[in-house]
């Protein structure tokens, strides 16, 4: 378990940039971006996300909200 704070919007966007160029203003996450984001969270925080949590992560803001809830609960 990590003592790092949950990622904010800018950090999530930075992680997604690791996959390559995103269109400016793109909000929705595709399946590849979601998989990459989950990998980043597992590596940095040592937590696994449930299928229900993954299903909620359809946009950048939704992902930030879910990650904030999950990681705060595991702190």
TrEMBL record:
Residues annotated as domain Carrier: 29-65
InterPro entries, sorted: ACP-like_sf, PP-bd_ACP
A Pfam family reported for this protein in Swiss-Prot or TrEMBL: PP-binding
UniProt-recorded name of the protein: Acyl carrier protein
Organism for this UniProt entry: Kribbella sandramycini
């Amino acid at each position: 378990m990590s003592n790092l704070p949950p990622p904010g919007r800018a950090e999530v966007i930075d992680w997604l940039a690791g996959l390559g160029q995103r269109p400016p203003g793109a909000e929705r996450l595709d399946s590849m971006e979601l998989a990459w984001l989950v990998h980043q969270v597992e590596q940095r925080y040592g937590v696994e996300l449930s299928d229900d949590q993954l299903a909620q992560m359809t946009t950048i803001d939704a992902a930030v909200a879910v990650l904030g809830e999950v990681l705060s609960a595991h702190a």
